[in-house]
């Protein structure tokens, strides 16, 4: 007879214990058929007792768990007990429910199984949580490792028992110990992010070659981890690195956390964050903050989102004063609307824009910059912002202007011989005409003819002087409507004085009726520079050909000129039949100070100045050259609207009405003062004269209401015209001021033509007309 097992209590006891309990209870026979269930079981699965009694338990188990039932139920009967056996059941409505089963077997008197008594624990919520946690583990964007550190703990405990108290020093003294500890870590699982980070195709590949992913810095990180754990920490964060399977070394941040439920360190979690982008972004941010150039980010409307410290250093505006403002607050009056319209047209088309700008600092002063603005796109390709890199070129432009002026003066020196020849001819005509006009024996009509010749000679000298002054003066870019034919006539007349007799100057107009929006003086300098270079390339003579044309330039043809726009261009081509240039020289010709001329024969700035001036006009250059055959420079300038400029025609002067008012004339040249006095008196005015600004101011102060107008020469000794005008405006606010000057321009600080400046030389009608206008009469 078999002795009863004390663990196998009677069925009546179990039934009484579980019948009315909160947990589901079921009793199965040895075949697995349901003999009894309690109300909690029926409520859990949604059946009535009649629907389940006598049925096989497998009818209620999810199909995927039937294999487990076939394996575990016989073992349950054999061992007499089951604990926390997990199954998925199906409710009557078909929904799944996860349960864990605890059970005992009730035996027959002969010791064979009679029935089972089982409790069902509803663990659906816990199972869902576990599935969610596993899903999170698998799909986390951060690399996650589940590791077993129990062997590491045992090794550390052994070291502690051996008297090691300073693990850091111990490991540094015995590097092999650190590698041994690393080999004791058992990797339980890794998520997909870890595989992606290492470039592994599977867990098996990673775990079988884990040592290949270590670097010296990896061991340094592990060193700090085990020292922290040895000293009692339950978590630790270190910067480390790993080597991917394609050999790339990536910086990472590793954080190890010991599960507090497992004091033997058998469950540890390690989170790995890739720092590659973070470090790159940090480096980029540092570079932007320390860059010498302005770096600015705006939204698509031009509102500033970011500026670096260089912005404050160059403009004077603090970050808080600029952020959130439109970039237009920096704009100076020197930049016209059309320039910015073309800039924004390029940017809104999604292209990079590059070009010069003149902006205004916080203190009101101007600065010049070279800017490159690029669109910033999101992942869909949509432009979401613009980033601008701007280099302050104020000093360079100032130096460039001085050197350009030096070049102009050098050219003026070369012109001196031709100019002197022209002036000698003019003076000869004037001298002869004066002699005949003064000869009282000559008939009156002959003497009038001589006076006419004298007048035309004066006009010719005036034009020659004005052109020379215009060419030699320095100035900022001043855009105006320029007729191509007038520009070329001015330039060609000047060039004929600069070239030798063995050089032919051939002009072939093809766009002579075209209009440019340009700075006349700068373009004249561009063409003179190109022609001088062509002349110097032909020391033994040859031909300089100047051609004009109109061409259409496409987006593709713009090429490496991002500041330019596709469209119609006027081209001015300067070609020579000189020595030509090879490819190596062509690459460098626009670089400042590069020159192929002998020392002392050039600054090397001619073509760099040409390049800069053409770029300022929104144009570009193309160059073609063949050694031994010559060179060709094609200047492309944006075509203007036709009909904007008409050629000035000479009209017979009409008699201008004079007046009766009193006029004060201040002029330091006695001859000019006498002539002005005579003209004004002939016009009916009362005239008072002064020889400098101080005398003029004293006369006004003595009788503030006497003068209707003060005519001031700008350049006078003791006190100049500008300063005198300021004092007179205070002494007699209602008195009109008219300036006169022998300079072509540049007599005022803003380098523009003042509306009240009468340019010398002028005739009587011009003087009387300007005086009448200034006073306010018709």
Number of domains: 5
* Average predicted confidence as pLDDT: 81
Based on the coordinates given, report the CATH architecture of the largest domain.
2-Layer Sandwich
Can you identify the CATH class of the largest domain? Answer: Alpha Beta
Beta content comes to 15-25%
Number of helices: 25
The coarse overall form would be: elongated
Largest sheet data: 5 strands, antiparallel
Pairing-aware structural class of the strands and helices?
A: alpha+beta
What is the rounded distance between the termini? 147 Å
Helical coverage, percent range: 25-40%
- What is the fourth-level CATH superfamily of the largest domain? Histidine kinase-like ATPase, C-terminal domain
- Given as residue ranges, the uncertain stretches (5+ residues, pLDDT < 50) are 1-9, 598-605, 643-653, 749-753
| Radius of gyration over all CA atoms, rounded | 49 Å
Oligomer: single chain
Strand order of the largest sheet: 2-1-5-4-3
Number of strands: 27
Q: Which fold name fills CATH's third level, the topology of the largest domain?
A: Heat Shock Protein 90
Question: What's the structural blueprint in terms of helices and strands?
Answer:
Blueprint: H1 11-18, E1 24-29, E2 34-37, H2 39-45, H3 66-79, E3 81-90, E4 96-107, E5 113-122, H4 124-139, E6 143-148, H5 150-161, H6 167-173, H7 175-183, E7 186-190, H8 192-198, H9 203-208, H10 216-230, E8 235-243, E9 249-258, E10 268-274, H11 276-290, E11 294-298, E12 304-307, H12 309-315, H13 319-322, H14 337-348, E13 353-360, E14 366-377, E15 383-392, H15 394-438, H16 444-472, E16 480-483, H17 484-495, E17 503-508, E18 515-518, H18 520-536, E19 542-553, H19 555-558, E20 567-576, H20 583-586, H21 606-616, E21 620-626, E22 630-638, E23 662-666, H22 670-682, E24 686-690, H23 693-702, E25 709-713, H24 721-731, E26 736-741, E27 757-759, H25 764-775
Parallel strand pairs: 17-19, 23-24, 23-25, 25-26, 26-27
Antiparallel strand pairs: 1-2, 1-5, 3-4, 4-5, 6-7, 6-10, 8-9, 9-10, 11-12, 11-15, 13-14, 14-15, 16-18, 19-20, 20-22, 21-22
């Amino acid at each position: 007879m078999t002795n009863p097992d004390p663990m196998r209590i009677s069925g009546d006891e179990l039934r009484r214990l579980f019948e009315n309990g909160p947990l589901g209870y079921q009793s199965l026979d040895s075949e697995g058929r349901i003999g009894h269930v309690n109300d909690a079981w029926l409520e859990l699965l949604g059946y009535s007792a009649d629907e389940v009694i006598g049925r096989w338990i497998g009818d209620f188990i999810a199909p995927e768990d039937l294999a487990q039932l076939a394996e575990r139920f016989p073992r349950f009967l054999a061992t007499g007990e089951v604990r926390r056996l997990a199954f998925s059941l199906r409710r009557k409505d078909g929904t799944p429910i996860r349960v864990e089963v605890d059970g005992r077997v009730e035996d027959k008197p002969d010791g064979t199984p009679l029935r089972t008594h089982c409790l069902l624990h509803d663990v659906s919520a816990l199972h869902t949580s576990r599935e969610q946690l596993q899903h999170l583990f698998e799909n986390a964007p951060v690399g996650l490792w589940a590791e077993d550190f129990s062997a590491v703990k045992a090794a550390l405990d052994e070291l502690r028992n051996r008297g090691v108290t300073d693990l850091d020093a111990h490991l540094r003294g015995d590097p092999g110990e650190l590698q041994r500890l690393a080999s004791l870590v058992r990797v339980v699982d890794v998520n997909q992010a870890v595989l992606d980070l290492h470039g592994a195709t599977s867990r098996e590949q990673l775990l079988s070659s884990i040592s290949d992913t270590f670097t010296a810095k990896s061991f340094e990180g592990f060193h700090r981890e085990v020292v922290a754990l040895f000293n009692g920490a339950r978590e630790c964060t270190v910067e480390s690195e790993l080597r991917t399977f394609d050999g790339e070394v990536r910086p990472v941040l590793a954080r190890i956390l010991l599960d507090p439920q497992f004091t033997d360190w058998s469950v540890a979690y390690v989170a790995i964050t890739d720092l590659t982008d973070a470090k790159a972004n940090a480096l980029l941010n540092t570079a932007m903050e320390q860059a010498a150039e302005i770096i600015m980010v705006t939204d698509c409307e031009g509102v500033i989102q970011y500026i670096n410290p260089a912005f404050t250093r160059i403009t004077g505006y603090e970050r808080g004063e600029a952020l959130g403002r439109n970039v237009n607050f920096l704009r100076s009056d020197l930049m016209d609307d059309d320039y910015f319209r073309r800039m924004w047209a390029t940017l809104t088309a999604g292209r990079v824009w590059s070009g010069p700008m003149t902006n205004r600092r916080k203190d009101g002063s101007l600065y010049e910059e070279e800017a490159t603005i690029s669109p910033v796109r999101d992942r869909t390709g949509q432009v979401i912002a613009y980033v601008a890199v701007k280099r302050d070129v104020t000093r360079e432009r100032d130096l460039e202007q001085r050197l350009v002026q030096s070049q102009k003066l050098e050219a003026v020196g070369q012109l001196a011989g031709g100019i002197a020849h022209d002036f000698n001819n003019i003076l000869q005509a004037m001298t002869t005409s004066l002699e005949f006009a003064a000869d009282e024996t000559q008939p009156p009509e002959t003497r009038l003819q001589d006076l006419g010749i004298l007048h035309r000679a004066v006009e010719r000298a005036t034009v020659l002087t004005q052109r020379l002054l215009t060419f030699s003066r320095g100035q900022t870019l001043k855009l105006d409507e320029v007729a191509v034919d007038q520009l070329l006539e001015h330039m060609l007349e000047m060039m004929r004085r600069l070239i030798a007799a063995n050089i032919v100057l051939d002009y072939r107009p093809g766009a002579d009726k075209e209009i440019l929006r340009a700075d006349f003086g700068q373009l004249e300098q561009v063409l003179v520079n190109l022609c001088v270079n062509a002349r110097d390339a032909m020391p033994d003579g040859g031909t300089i050909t100047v051609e004009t044309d109109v061409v259409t330039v496409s987006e593709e043809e713009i090429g490496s000129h991002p500041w330019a726009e596709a469209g119609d261009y006027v081209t001015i081509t300067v070609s020579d039949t000189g020595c030509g240039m090879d490819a190596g020289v062509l690459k460098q010709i626009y670089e400042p100070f590069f020159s192929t001329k002998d020392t002392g024969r050039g600054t090397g700035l001619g073509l760099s100045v040409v390049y800069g001036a053409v770029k300022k006009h929104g144009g570009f250059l193309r160059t073609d050259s063949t050694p031994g055959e010559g060179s060709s420079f094609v200047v492309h300038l944006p075509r203007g609207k036709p009909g904007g400029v008409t050629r000035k025609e000479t009209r017979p002067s009409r008699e201008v009405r004079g007046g009766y008012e009193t006029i004060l004339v201040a002029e330091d040249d006695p001859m000019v003062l006498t002539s002005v006095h005579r003209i004004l008196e002939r016009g009916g005015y009362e005239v008072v004269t002064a020889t400098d600004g101080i005398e003029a101011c004293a006369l006004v102060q003595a009788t503030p209401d006497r003068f209707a107008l003060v005519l001031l020469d700008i350049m006078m000794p003791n006190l100049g015209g500008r300063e005198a005008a300021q004092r007179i405006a205070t002494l007699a606010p209602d008195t009109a001021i008219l300036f006169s000057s022998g300079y072509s321009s540049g007599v005022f600080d803003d380098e523009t033509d003042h509306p009240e400046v009468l340019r010398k030389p002028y005739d009587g009608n011009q003087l009387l007309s300007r005086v009448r206008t200034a006073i306010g009469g018709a």
